[in-house]
Design goal:
The complex is a heterodimer of chains A (536) and B (348).
Chain A lengths: L1 H12 L3 H14 L4 H10 L9 H9 L4 H11 L2 H8 L11 H10 L5 H11 L2 H12 L8 H12 L3 H8 L7 H7 L21 E2 L2 H6 L5 E7 L2 E8 L2 E6 L10 H6 L4 E11 L2 E2 L2 H8 L6 H6 L2 E11 L2 E2 L5 H15 L4 E3 L8 H10 L5 E8 L13 E5 L3 E12 L8 E9 L5 E7 L5 H13 L1 E5 L2 E4 L4 E6 L1 E4 L7 E4 L2 E5 L11 H5 L9 H9 L1
Parallel strand pairs in A: 1-11, 7-9
Antiparallel strand pairs in A: 2-10, 3-4, 3-5, 5-6, 5-7, 7-8, 10-11, 12-13, 12-16, 12-17, 13-14, 15-16, 17-20, 18-19
Helix pairs in contact in A: 1-2, 1-9, 2-10, 4-6, 5-6, 6-9, 10-11
Chain B lengths: L9 E4 L2 E4 L4 E3 L7 E3 L14 E4 L1 H11 L7 E4 L6 E3 L2 E7 L7 E7 L2 E5 L21 E6 L11 H14 L5 E4 L5 H11 L6 E3 L4 H9 L7 E3 L12 E4 L1 H4 L11 E5 L6 H6 L4 E3 L7 H11 L3 E7 L1 H10 L3 E4 L21
Parallel strand pairs in B: 3-4, 4-5, 5-6, 10-11, 11-18, 12-15, 12-16, 13-14, 13-15, 16-17, 18-19
Antiparallel strand pairs in B: 1-2, 2-3, 7-8, 8-9, 9-10
Pfam family, one (chain A): DNA_ligase_A_M
Organism (chain A): Acidisoma silvae
Catalytic activity (chain A): ATP + (deoxyribonucleotide)n-3'-hydroxyl + 5'-phospho-(deoxyribonucleotide)m = (deoxyribonucleotide)n+m + AMP + diphosphate
Chain lengths: 536, 348
């Protein structure tokens, strides 16, 4: 537990990617099997314990600590597991258990015996170890590193490309003995043949103006950049999987897609909520992504579909070395042959010159479209983010200058900071009306600035919410404005985020609601959408 | 005749804690005629007093920090455990274990005894004399870390984290933010005890105080100025700087700096996060929760006055032990371990 707790603590405070990699490499290099395998599983989210609930932790602590002191401390710290870890009485009475022992004992211990086991462990740990243990067993572990980053660190440690690890990953179970045997040179690469494993995805670079100027546009094909999430569909005789582009297995969340995968192959596409062929807003998809196993109502109200744009394997034939144009032809033929339910093809957009696309991109304001994708016709399907073959050309965000109206404290590491903001615009009659909320987009320094500002300019409080003087202007970037009946202003913003703090601008000079309403696309499908229909 | 209750002769005035029969203040918050000073931190040792009574080391620290003129018109050194009679009030200074020269002020008047402990800690510290509990009728305590979540770990364990980090990041300059009086010297001494014998680079604001510690017999090993050192020589080096400088532009000259902070507040993640620290080190010069309670027990005081800090929790915990707690709510004692300290010390 000790090295794992140290790793977690360092990762939490380490912002830099390279530094995180160094910490992970150090951990994987110096920690024996099977502990490091379980740590990897914890980072990858492949370990879950359900028996130990926060309520159990609370009972263990309040049996040992005065309830008033516990309540005040919890108020002060803001996190149950951390409060429990810090307040647990007594000093370290032994050696912290090994991570692998914690995992095996947890899975073997009947629920009734669990409190005593956990209390014993807590007695043997120091505060950092207690926190790691409590977060691990209650399922609240936030590692501060992704599974992908851990695989990159493992790859660096063993001199193996991370994508090679990705290709065997989904055939393995914690603590991944065959993986570590291979990485240590004790055994050959695990054989994933026939298993529905993830294949590393090809990613695009954002197209900057300088890139656009140098581009040979005639060599590229254009598609809409759909506003869903990138997925990989894998179906082999051994099983079916739906993966995100970071190799997360989300099969359980989308049973209707799995059911429609009546084929063998690997396909690349965009997961969307679609109703009668119409793409629903991203928020609808988010409803689905939030559920590990959706109920019948969820499945009916938010039906998922996949818009396909590439084929990696047809049966067990690997097509990745083919050019984009050849793969596209294979994809279209494959689609015509299989006609899979809940799927369609992402159309190619015909164009003759850059100017055509620039205009389309500018006009692309439909909720379902984020911009354009440009793919070189002669490019093979390459893992990673090679610069040149694929570009994403996102539409530029819109901005408004809005006035901060309310602030609320955030969650997790932002629980002591006023980090969730409601902002508004001026109406004709001089009343400020809220148009949205934003939680992101600013640096920690800016966050600290707004936090101080909020505390110094509070006019009233409603529970966790503070109303503030109408004095701070925030520049809000957003992807689109939509009509909304749920908002007092009648407008809702898509993906609002704070792009900067306008301390230079008096609140009275912030934007008016009218100017935002003027930016809502007129009724009916946006120009971009109509073109897609033609393409199909 | 029974002894007078301490609240009949020791009172809270706007200037601070006042001993009426002796006509002096203890750690007054503004300039007064007569002051007894517990230790050299600037919120306890303020400039401009008439007479100042303190340990020789505290007086030396005051002269270094505020200049000869401002450190009291008349300075009177008093050794530890040497009782002094002042207008019938017995004054004795007893080690407080907080920083070099820090003292508890033991006041005796007509058979009643109050111990004003100033700031103190119970962990071993090679840079100052260890705290000694003194039985009394009223114990006046701080409560900087007056929540049961503050339980400081062994500082050697924290120093081991710093040294381990240097093996993982051998190129990065590890800058430890540490308050320039006390914490900085303690961190250096802890590093030496852990076997780190390379030169330690220090911010200019630390130089005179480190020299003062050395002059008082606290060996700190080789120290070099960090300002002006070549970037190459700072690769994998340890630099000690006041917290505000460590996290500010000053640190940009270092090699891919890794910012650490030595403070008791680093125990709570939220506070450490807010401080923008990459390596929190829980090293404190204040008593933690367990030591606050232990100390009260050892003084056997039936009544405890709390000067500053998180007094509610401490007073509640004392009430559970049938000890009467009273908040003095002295405004003006700052928190010398606060992560959000904003004032940078001038470079000396």
């Amino acid at each position: 537990m000790t090295p794992f707790a140290e790793l977690l603590e360092r990762l939490v405070f380490t912002p830099g990617r390279l530094a995180k990699l160094a910490l992970l490499r150090d951990y994987f290099t110096h920690t024996p099997d099977p502990d490091r395998g379980f740590a990897l599983a914890a980072i990858a989210g492949d370990l879950s314990f359900t028996a130990a609930k926060p309520a159990m932790i609370r009972e263990l602590v309040t049996a040992r600590v005065d309830p008033t002191l516990f309540a005040w401390s919890y108020d002060y710290v803001g996190d149950l597991a951390e409060t429990a870890a810090l307040i647990w009485p007594g000093s370290r009475a032994g050696t912290a258990p090994r991570l692998s022992d914690v995992v095996s004992i947890l899975s073997d211990t009947p629920k009734a015996a669990l409190p005593a086991v956990v209390a014993d462990w807590l007695d043997m740990c120091d505060a950092s170890e207690r926190l790691a243990l409590l977060k691990l067993i209650t399922g609240g572990l936030r590692v501060g590193a992704s599974a992908r980053l851990a695989k990159i660190a493992l790859g660096e440690m063993a001199g193996v490309p991370a994508d090679d690890i990705e290709e065997v990953w989904h055939g393995l179970q914690p603590p991944y003995g065959p993986l570590f045997d291979w990485l240590s040179g004790r055994a050959p690469k695990p054989d994933a043949a026939g298993a529905p494993v993830f294949r590393p995805t090809m990613l695009a670079h954002p197209l900057e103006e300088t890139d656009a100027a140098a581009l040979d546009w005639s060599a590229y094909r254009a598609e809409w950049k759909w506003d869903g999430i990138r997925v990989q569909l894998v179906a082999t005789p051994q099983g079916r999987r739906l993966y995100t582009r970071t190799a997360e297995d989300i099969s359980h969340g989308f049973p209707e897609i799995l059911a429609a995968m009546e084929f063998h192959g690997v396909l690349d596409g965009e997961l969307l909520v679609m109703r009668d062929g119409e793409v629903a807003p991203f928020a609808d998809l988010q409803q689905r992504l939030n559920r590990k196993s959706p109920g019948p109502k969820m499945l009916k109200d938010f039906p998922a579909g996949v818009r396909l744009y590439d084929i990696l394997f047809d049966g067990d034939e690997d097509l990745r070395a083919l050019s984009f144009d050849d793969r596209r032809a294979r994809l279209e033929a494959w689609f015509a042959h299989h006609q899979p339910a809940r799927m369609d093809l992402s159309a190619l957009i015909p164009f003759t010159a850059q100017a055509d696309l620039a205009e389309l991109r500018f006009g692309a304001r439909a909720a379902s479209i984020e911009g354009l994708m440009l793919k070189r016709g002669d490019s093979a399907y390459l893992a990673g983010r090679p610069k040149g073959p694929w570009w994403k050309w996102k539409r530029a965000p819109l901005t408004i200058d809005a006035v901060l109206m309310y602030a609320q404290r955030g969650h997790g590491r932002r629980s002591s900071i006023y980090s969730d903001y409601t902002f508004g615009l001026w109406r004709e009659d001089g009343v400020l009306v809220p148009v949205g909320k934003a939680y992101s987009g600013i640096t920690d320094q800016e966050l600290a600035f707004i936090d101080r500002w909020v505390r110094a300019h509070t006019t009233s409080r409603f529970g966790p919410v503070r109303e503030v003087e109408k004095g701070l202007v925030l520049e809000i970037a957003f992807d689109a404005a939509q009509r909304s009946n749920r908002h007092k202003s009648g407008v809702a913003l898509r993906f609002p985020r704070i792009s900067r703090i306008r301390t230079d601008k008096p609140a009275a000079e912030a934007d008016r609601l009218d100017s935002l309403i003027a930016r809502i696309p007129a009724g009916g499908p946006a120009k971009g959408e109509a073109l897609v229909e033609e393409g199909d | 005749m029974s002894a007078p209750h301490p609240d009949t002769w020791l009172r809270v005035l706007p200037q601070g804690l006042y001993c009426e029969p002796g006509d002096f203040f203890i750690d007054p918050l503004r300039a007064v005629g007569h002051a007894v000073i517990t230790h050299g931190h600037s919120d306890h040792a303020r400039p401009g007093h008439g007479g100042v009574l303190a340990t020789e080391a505290t007086l030396a620290i005051m002269r270094v920090r505020m200049g000869e003129g401002a450190a009291g018109e008349r300075q009177q050194p008093l050794g530890y455990r040497t009782p002094l009679d002042h207008r019938g009030v017995g004054i004795t200074l007893v080690p407080a274990g907080h920083v070099l020269g820090s003292a508890q002020v033991v006041l005796d008047w007509q058979g009643s005894r109050v111990v004003v402990s100033g700031d103190y800690k119970r962990q071993p510290d090679p840079t100052c004399a260890a705290f000694e509990p003194v039985p009394c009728d009223v114990f006046v305590t701080e409560a900087t870390f007056g929540f049961p979540v503050f339980r400081h770990p062994d500082p050697a364990h924290e120093i081991a984290k710093l040294l381990k980090s240097l093996t993982i990041f051998p190129e990065r300059t590890h800058i430890v933010g540490a308050y320039s009086l006390g914490k900085a010297q303690r961190v250096i001494a802890l590093l030496r005890a852990a076997g780190w014998d390379q030169p330690i680079f220090i911010h200019g604001a630390l130089a005179s105080l480190c020299a003062l510690y050395e002059a008082h017999g606290v060996a700190l090993g080789p120290l070099l100025p960090a300002t002006g050192a070549a970037k190459d020589t700072l690769k994998g080096a340890i630099v000690i700087a006041p917290p505000a400088a460590a996290a500010d532009r000053w640190s940009r000259r270092m090699n891919d700096p890794l910012i650490a902070r030595a403070s008791g507040w680093m125990r709570v993640r939220q506070r450490a996060k807010m401080a923008g620290v990459e390596l929190p080190l829980v090293i404190s010069d204040h008593a933690d929760w367990d030591d606050l309670l232990r100390t009260v027990d050892e003084t056997q005081a039936p009544e405890v006055w709390v000067t500053h800090g998180a007094e509610e929790a401490l007073i509640h915990a004392l009430s559970l032990r049938q000890i009467k707690g009273r908040p003095l709510s002295l405004v003006g004692y700052e928190d010398d371990e606060a992560p959000e300290e904003t004032v940078a010390e001038p470079e000396a």
